[in-house]
User: What shape does this take?
Amino acid sequence: MDPNELFYPWKEVRKDLIRMVAWFSEEDLFFKPAPNCWLVGETFLHIAECEDYWIHAMVRKELPLDLHYDMGQYPSGRAIRKRLELSHERSMQFIEGLKQPDLAWRFTTPAGETLTLYEILWHVIEHEVHHRGELSLILGLLGRKGLDV
Assistant: This one.
């Protein structure tokens, strides 16, 4: 299957995630649901960081492997949305240029694990869906309606 068709649902997943940023107030972005959890804003940034790490540092080697996005760099909902949009736009451009055989490309992580491009891309999407659900739950903890999927 063509990679652009295979990974097309990610566009909708990201649209929902970006909409969710606005459902949190600026104050909410600094809410920590439990002592060992990230701030809400850090969770959004973690999604972009993971995407950029796996696709644009590990695979494409365009970014450093030690990249890190934090609330000091992206202290507002607008800044977080922009980071998510930029990361995803770059990923979609990459995917649009792929052909089915490219999904078999193999990469070795710094930990020595070997993964195909297909496995990496699905990991990134699954990771985003996981944290999107977590953010929806946090909205519920704040007394608001979460994402209806």
